[in-house]
Design goal:
By secondary structure, the chain is of the alpha+beta class. The protein contains 6 helices and 11 strands. The strands form 2 sheets. It has a 6-stranded mixed sheet with strand order 5-6-7-8-9-10. A 5-stranded mixed sheet has the order 1-2-3-4-11. It is flat, with a radius of gyration of 30 Å. The longest helix has 30 residues. Helices cover about 25% and strands about 30% of the residues.
């Protein structure tokens, strides 16, 4: 006996309901698998983005010191729908290194300033896109010195910061540069560009320490000493630049040790009151042009007009810093800013496993670097 028509319709609706229920459950399960967990501060991919973005920040900057990654504090991540790429907003904690921006060294090759080097710390807000490569979009960094009170608690005898405009600071920089020019075997003299840091400490008397940048002048080493003060800097892309550490022990004669016979102790008397160490960097324009000539096999290995290629053996470090693979194509200084600003009050991170682990703390546990 065949079922009635209403009965068949009811059975059909039941089967359709079961089918739709199974289909919905399958779609929900598939959607759950397709949606990955959001990345956190311990994700290797996010750490890679932060490291490469910081490299590009350092390449974009035109002054100051190279920054090193201390930790990843927070992040947000957006997956691109059309291109398949990603967009990150990162908050990264940074610390200043001993490398000046002039060196163009990768930040992983630079040593973070320790407790006795007037350490500086801060944070950067970074936006970066990721497709096949990481591309920095923009950044904003705020930096500040570790308070002297925090340093003194850990290291009472460490040097303390000095005002860059103090006469003794300028004197120390000038004396240091004078000694460098006297001992250097480079073709031209160098002149002072900027004093970037200064500190003092009592070591057999008041001792002063300076860091400063220098630039090549048009005056050769044969220039008379009386004319050096009027030597203009070399105004071209092939001018060499450098970064120097200088020190000066003031009033040395007041601290010379007298022997019983009235003579001065020669071991102390021969101590030089001024010391200096400089790194001179090959201009990138010269390195690129040298490579071009080498490829052309023209035999032209020297720029006669400015005598740019003067890699003589000498006692000062003379390094060539190749262009980084992350060098930004835009003019430097256009992607973001770095300012001096007090530490902000920060809310707790919103991303999972954030903040990440500190890479440095300088022994200052009470200070949130």
């Amino acid at each position: 006996m065949c079922p009635s028509k209403p009965c068949l319709e009811k059975q059909g609706l039941q089967r359709m309901s079961v089918f739709l229920l199974v289909l919905c459950l399958a779609l929900l399960q598939q959607g759950g698998r397709a949606r990955p967990n959001p990345p956190g501060c311990n994700s290797p991919e996010v750490v890679r983005v932060a490291e490469e973005a910081l490299e590009q920040i350092n390449q974009d900057r035109t002054d100051g010191y190279i920054l090193s990654l201390n930790r990843l504090y927070n992040l947000s991540h957006t997956q691109g729908k059309e291109t398949g790429g990603s967009f990150y907003k990162l908050t990264i904690d940074v610390m200043e290194t001993k490398c000046h921006i002039t060196s163009r060294k990768p930040w992983k090759q630079c040593e973070v300033r320790n407790i006795g080097d007037l350490p500086v710390y801060g944070e950067c807000e970074v936006s970066a896109s990721v497709d096949s490569q990481v591309k920095l979009q923009n950044y904003s960094c705020a930096l500040r010195e570790v308070p002297a009170t925090a340093v003194v608690q850990v290291c009472p005898d460490c040097p303390t910061a000095d005002n860059l405009n103090e006469p003794v600071v300028k004197e120390t920089a000038n004396l240091s540069l004078q000694r460098f020019n006297e001992e250097s075997r480079l073709a031209n003299y160098f002149t002072l560009e900027n004093i970037t840091r200064a500190s003092s400490q009592w070591v057999f008397g008041p001792s002063y320490f300076v860091e400063f940048t220098i630039v090549e002048t048009v005056c050769s080493r044969t220039t008379d000493a009386s004319e050096l003060s009027s030597c203009p800097p070399m105004d071209c892309q092939f001018a060499h630049r450098g970064f120097c550490l200088g020190s000066h022990v003031a009033h040395e004669d007041q601290f010379q040790i007298r022997l019983p016979d009235g003579k001065k102790d020669s071991s102390f008397h021969n101590r030089k009151a001024v010391d200096v160490k400089c790194e001179i960097y090959e201009p990138q324009a010269a390195a690129v042009e040298e490579q071009t000539h080498a490829k052309a096999d023209s035999g032209h290995t020297r720029h006669q007009h400015h005598n740019h290629m003067h890699l003589h053996p000498h006692e000062h470090m003379h390094s060539v810093t190749p262009s980084s693979a992350h060098t930004v194509s835009e003019p430097r200084g256009t992607l973001g800013t770095v300012v001096d600003r007090p530490a902000p009050h920060r809310s707790a991170p919103s991303a999972s496993s954030c903040p990440g682990q500190h890479r440095h703390n300088l022994g200052l546990d009470r200070l949130k670097l």
